[in-house]
């Protein structure tokens, strides 16, 4: 018993030391977790103070993970680990991981390029390749969009950056183009007046630049009249649909017709043709 008691007395300082280190480590982890929440909340509040909303998700991710890394180093230091050597080891491991995950690193690099050059922002409608959608989030790895039919798309940043980008909402105004087809027997000037009347009755069409009217083409079955008018980007689709709805009744009210494709066929009767050729030969 005396020997066991002596061993316990020798181990007790070690147990106390380890126990205190565990308690300090748990406290450090708790402080790190609270600090990460505070940092994330603070980054989100920056968006309410005018900071570009596009930057918020990336800044939040970097700040939170940076806080966790610092907390992890503190915990290791509590247990007496050589953090300097550990950082060097992590650096070497990072190179190896980077070579293995080069596609992922390309996504991260493309994300920083998108955030730096700002070809689009959160809330803008873009197209890259065959995908059209409204940007909801630009993250370190992916860009999230909502398509017009209500689907959520998560596209790798390098795929987004690697395509030609079309931004539909960056500019304040957009041009509407309407094609009105009338028959060859209809009066062209009457058709032009129909287009001018539609524009005059639509207050959302801008006066600058001025609307333009022209004969676009003399097609196979119709004369195609062309209207170009400008409206604000927010009103673009409402104005376009409104003009298209009013176009047909307006043309018909002026006695103009929208012709169907037509084709003339000349049929030669072979039965009648052969006797004539025979008589001519005789």
From TrEMBL:
Bilayer topology annotation: Multi-pass membrane protein
- UniProt-annotated location(s): Cell inner membrane; Cell membrane
Q: Using the record's annotation, list all stretches that form the Mechanosensitive ion channel MscS domain.
A: 104-170
The UniProt entry, under Gene3D superfamilies, shows: 1.10.287.1260, 2.30.30.60, 3.30.70.100
Report domain Mechanosensitive ion channel MscS C-terminal positions: 177-258
Q: Name one GO molecular function term.
A: mechanosensitive monoatomic ion channel activity
Sorted alphabetically, the keyword list is: Cell inner membrane, Cell membrane, Ion channel, Ion transport, Membrane, Transmembrane, Transmembrane helix, Transport
Q: Where is the Mechanosensitive ion channel transmembrane helices 2/3 domain?
A: 66-102
Write down a Pfam family by its short name.
MS_channel_1st_1
Residues passing through the membrane, by range? 20-40, 61-81, 87-117
A GO cellular-component term linked to this record:
plasma membrane
Q: Which family does it belong to?
A: Belongs to the MscS (TC 1.A.23) family.
Role summary: Mechanosensitive channel that participates in the regulation of osmotic pressure changes within the cell, opening in response to stretch forces in the membrane lipid bilayer, without the need for other proteins. Contributes to normal resistance to hypoosmotic shock. Forms an ion channel of 1.0 nanosiemens conductance with a slight preference for anions.
- What quaternary arrangement does the UniProt entry report? Homoheptamer.
Name this polypeptide is given? Small-conductance mechanosensitive channel
* Organism field: Microbulbifer pacificus
């Amino acid at each position: 018993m005396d020997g066991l008691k002596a061993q316990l007395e020798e181990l007790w300082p070690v147990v106390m030391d380890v126990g205190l280190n565990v308690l300090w480590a748990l406290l450090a982890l708790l402080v790190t977790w609270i600090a990460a929440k505070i940092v994330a909340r603070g980054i989100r509040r920056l968006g309410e103070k005018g900071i570009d909303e596009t930057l918020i998700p990336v800044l939040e991710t970097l700040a939170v993970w940076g806080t966790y890394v610092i907390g992890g180093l503190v915990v290791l230091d509590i247990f007496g680990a050589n953090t300097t050597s550990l950082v060097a080891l992590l650096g070497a491991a990072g190179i190896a991981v980077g070579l293995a995950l080069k596609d992922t690193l390309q996504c991260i690099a493309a994300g920083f390029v998108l955030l730096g050059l700002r070809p689009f922002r959160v809330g803008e409608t873009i197209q890259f390749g065959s995908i059209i959608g409204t940007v909801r989030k630009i993250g370190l790895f992916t860009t999230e969009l909502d398509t017009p039919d209500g689907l959520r798309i998560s596209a790798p940043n390098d795929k987004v950056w690697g395509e030609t980008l079309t931004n539909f909402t960056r500019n304040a105004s957009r041009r509407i183009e309407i094609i009105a087809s009338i028959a060859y027997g209809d009066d062209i000037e009457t058709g032009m007046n129909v287009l001018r009347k539609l524009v005059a009755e639509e207050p959302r069409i801008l006066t600058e630049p001025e609307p333009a009217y022209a004969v676009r083409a003399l097609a196979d079955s119709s004369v195609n009249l062309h209207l170009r008018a400008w409206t604000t980007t927010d009103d673009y689709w409402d104005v376009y649909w409104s003009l298209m709805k009013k176009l047909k009744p307006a043309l018909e009210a002026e006695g103009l017709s929208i012709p169907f494709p037509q084709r003339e066929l000349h049929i030669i009767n072979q039965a009648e043709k052969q006797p004539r050729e025979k008589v001519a030969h005789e």
